[in-house]
Amino acid sequence: MDEGRPDTVRVVITGIGLTAPNGNSLNEFRAALLAGKSGVVPYETRYFGSTVAGVCHFDELRYQKKKDIRRGTRAGSIGIYCANEALADAQIDPGSLDRSRVGIYIGVTEHGNVETENEVFQLKGYDYDTQYWSHHHNPRTVANNPAGEISLNLRITGPHYTIGAACAAGNAGVIQGVQMLRLGECDVAICGGVSESIHTFGIFASFHSQGALARHDDPTRASRPFDLDRNGIVVAEGGCIFVLERLADAVSRGARCYGEVVGYALNSDAVDFVLPDAQRQAECMAAALRRAGIGPNEVDIVSTHATGTSSGDAQECAALRTVFNGSPRVHFNNTKSYIGHAMGAAGALELAGNLPAFDDGICHPTINLDRLDPECELPNLVVGQPKQLGRVETILNNSFGMLGINSAVVVRRCEG
Which pTM was predicted? Predict the structure, then answer.
């Protein structure tokens, strides 16, 4: 590649802020993953009733006032918490930034359903008289809301927008941040994904009507990707936001580097609203590896997307076998087995949970896998207990979504 082309610009992760059902920082989250600690709990939701969900417990008032929370959204609060934590982790004082040169790119699966359901529910108490409809509803439900709330909180005057990419959105947010840095559109990218999905009864009802909502007597065992007895998705909320910078800028300020984003790809199945396609998923992973300039046998950890649905898990495993063809080096794990499916935040959270492997050399396991489905058999699928791999060089993070959107991000150990 020619010197000076955008795709030669090296981009690194220098800050991570997150809230997950089993941790409110990277250290807490990683410790839970290594200890096999689930964050799935019993959950009650309007109209639908009793179910299970991944629920976050972060300090909403750390970076917001009560009036801000009343005016805004749960997704906005999650984003604000994660963005502030990420900047602090990167040791960046927002006041020191040229705020016009900061971009905010946040992936979402959906936005606005929670607020609309809440308004309709409240309106019922006023005999559906719309004069009682909240004047906050429009700014709460516009698609750019989560990114916009971060912009308002941090007084960022550069571009902000959300990327609607179904359950591939966390990866898509990262990809957008990398692209904007390489194009010179910003100097710092605040990017990743958020989800408030457990606060809408509609998502539970819809998955239930599809026969795709998980159930189990023990909530902590309800999310069980690859297991022969898996019976669906555990819905979760959460968020994970990264600070991305060009490598040269990070080095000049002595920043810590979690990893370098060296490859990525997005493509579409174009076959069905919800059913995945293994061939297109394989093509997406292969394209990300080509962009990274590495072969499948150079990957150490693949963070799988698998959600616990019968078809989805099997199709992904078929794609993984196609791409990696039994490479003895690559190991596979799954994070949804701990926290459920955090929708727009899933890809970002799952990437973050694996990044510490560059330091400790450990691949966290998949939990709740008692009877492996033969259709999900993978060599070096790490199950039950963490596995020490030694020196980890490369991680590939899969994230796929409805309407057939596929994403893959490749991150390598930071080197010079």
Answer: 0.96
